Amino acid sequence: MRVFLTGATGFIGSHVIPELLSRGHQVLGLTRSDAGAQKLEAAGAEVHRGDLERPDTLTSGVAVADAVIHCAFDHDFANFVENTKKDERNIAAMGDALTGTNKPILITSGIGIGTPRNGGPATEDVLNPLHTNPRIVTELAAAALIARRIDVRTIRLPQVHDTTKAGLITPLIAEARRAGAVAYLGEGRTRWAAAHISDVAKLYALALEIGEPGARYHASVEEGIDARRIAEAIGAGTGLPVRSIAVDEVERYFGWMTPFAALDMTASSVWTRARLGWEPTGPDLLTDLAAMNYAEAQAV
Hints:
It is a single chain. By secondary structure, this protein is an alpha/beta fold. The protein contains 12 helices and 12 strands. The model has no long low-confidence stretch (mean pLDDT 95).
């Protein structure tokens, strides 16, 4: 297949490219810059010029491809709500371009959207339309396309990691440096699901090749790692002290990440593994944090 890939030069997309190429697919990667174009060409992908601010540049990519993988998202958390709305608009635009075709589109969301209302790990069968996370609009946009009989498949991501980057843990490291210590709330029992980037890339490819229309797939390899263990691993890597904090100290140590301090983000992938035959083999989160290049992580 010729796959149109948004976010092709980003952390996720840049690993999806070699996975798709190794399986015999062609990749048409979205980029807005000359540097991005050079990176795509070096990776063996075709270049498609455009950006998230111009939905027409996305639909033109859809038109010349056999399938779409939508990894792009503007991660400027200062404008998070507006960026989710932008994602909603772009998904709707690409959906219009897919109308009347059998082309699949894979969209990217977060595992938290699948958290049951009564708590517990997120599961693939749960979609709470009233979820407080603004990113819910991504999945509502997907649901609108599914209602129009468009082949939409959703990949929900946990903390995706290697030795240079680790999802929300990367900005958490920056906040710890600013505060002078790595903190966890209370006893540090909140947990975050995680997966190595190589396993996530394989999941995108499997969902593309044998996934089902309307299905949601969880890229969580580890169901949840304790906040305290994550903090201790960061402390060991950075040399910063590690401390337990009370609720009234959270903003000092977590900054803009305060809403995540007490958030339990666990997720099961039992259904995903059974349906797709997904067998993760990458390192676990704590292994990568122990081997992380913290100088490079600081610059990300």
